[in-house]
Amino acid sequence: MKIYKFYGNRNANDGKHQPIGINVKHSNLQKFITLNVSIKAEHWNFKKRDFKDFQSIGKISVEDREHLSRCKRMFTDLETLFDLEFSKLKQSFTLKSYTIEDWKIWCERVYESFITPRIPIKSKPFNLLWNDYIEKHERIHSNSTIAGYKSKKSAYDDFETYCKKNYMPDEMNDDFYKRLKIYILDNKKWKINTFGDIVKKIKSIANYWERQGIDFHKDLRNFKKEYYTPEYHILKEDEIKKIFAYSGTEKENEIIKIAKILYYGCFRYSEVIYNVKNKSFEDIQNNIEEHIDINNKRIFRWKCHQEKQADSKPFKNLPMHKELHDMITNENAIPKIYSLNSFNTTIPQILSKIGINKKISSHS
């Protein structure tokens, strides 16, 4: 499903206020919805069909800035709601039979739920809302996503224990944000990415519960999801060959084999663990199928689990590179699978030994 924004009836710059809306598309299905809000033409990027950022607008009144900010937030919230409801729709297994009329009705229902005035409901402490969020989304999100929410929930519980306080949604203000940051970075000595990930999940959970009628403190919208992204390098083809040709300790040789699976299979490390470490050799072979391509050549496809996909489509049929096929179909060639941390620690040591001065990880 894709959501596209539009301005007026023709996306034309006529110098006037025009209503804005969305086109909700999936395959050959689409539904245009005009929203009950309009903006000035000078605040719309007609080429990109999106809001202009404030920097490109230049001088703007306080009233226009606030109005445009509200419009942007509304679109973000509406897109989030459609994404959530679409995930549920895929779970119902009725999507394949949808006609254009079915799709229009579904889109209208989602939009109606968005614009219907919320009925305030009695709130709970945020740690309990976090538990409820996980329970409601376990069938929608992938296992790794839910595991991430549970892991960060544990860290958040430690923070509340440290503060000796169970925060309510309307208490999660700037002071809460500062205390959480100090606890994560100074008290626990955890990395900034851990803090950023906790804030990201807090905002996602708050966004969900706000649509259910629970009010959060206005400061929460401005919480920053801070991250540090290390710079990694790209390996050249001759460097990859040099790595794969390396022979060292028993552990290093197994790590090289894992690197080959990552490279030739385009896997995440978690997918290697799921599809190789957690499977018997017989199970792996049962998921490999032989096909004949359009050039009448034999090819092999491996039915693999996708760690990042929701339950409605958890597998992909991976065309197998010859190197990957030869390794996976030879029981003696399948490597011992080490932890991700062990992989990321060993690979730099191997690179140092063969004279490659680059920083890489399992994603390289």
What order do the strands of the largest sheet run in, or round the barrel if closed? 1-2-3
Q: What would the principal axes of the Cα set say about the shape? A: globular
Percentage of residues in strands: 5-15%
Average pLDDT figure: 87
- Structure class: alpha+beta
Low-confidence parts? none
- What's the Cα radius of gyration? 25 Å
Q: Using DSSP, what is the number of strands?
A: 8
SSE pattern, N- to C-terminal = EEEEEHHHHHHHHHHHEEEHH
**N-to-C span:** 29 Å
Biggest beta sheet attributes: 3 strands, antiparallel
Note the total helix count.
13
Helix percent reads 40-55%
Please, could you describe this protein's structure?
This protein is of the alpha+beta class and 364 residues long. Helices cover 49% and strands 13% of the residues. The chain has 13 helices and 8 strands. It has helices spanning 54-57, 62-91, 100-115, 126-137, 143-163, 174-187, 192-211, 237-244, 250-265, 269-277, 281-286, 322-328, 340-353, and strands at 2-7, 18-26, 29-39, 44-45, 50-51, 288-292, 298-305, 315-319. The strands form 3 sheets. It has a 3-stranded antiparallel beta sheet. Helix 9 (250-265) packs across helix 13. The longest helix is centred in the first third of the chain and has 30 residues, at 62-91. The chain is globular, with a radius of gyration of 25 Å.
